[in-house]
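Extended Data, record LIM zinc-binding domain-containing protein
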Amino acid sequence: MPFKPPEVTKCPKCNQNVYAAEEVPAAGKKWHKMCFKCGLCKKMLEAMTVAEHEGNVYCKQCYGRKFGPKGYGFGQGAGTLGMDTGEHLGNKGGSEMTNKPNYAPPPGVGAHEEE
């Protein structure tokens, strides 16, 4: 039986060979330890701090900012009061509420009553 070398995979970040001694398995792929960084802030990631979206890896904080829910109540601290739309993270503008309810005004509101 001829010798068969172990299968070597390519790192999705740098497209170089990843050998078993240096691999970090995450998001269904094998990464170099030095390539396994957040796609936005470039912070080194670990198995417990990684979030994957469309083949890219992010730290939990950047993932939440870029892909998480927007609006009041979906953050922590005073940051929830800001008007950050995430455009600096690549989110497109125009994140206005398109499903905003259109209720009729309460009785007496908008009517000018003279005394």
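Summary. The chain has a mean pLDDT of 75.
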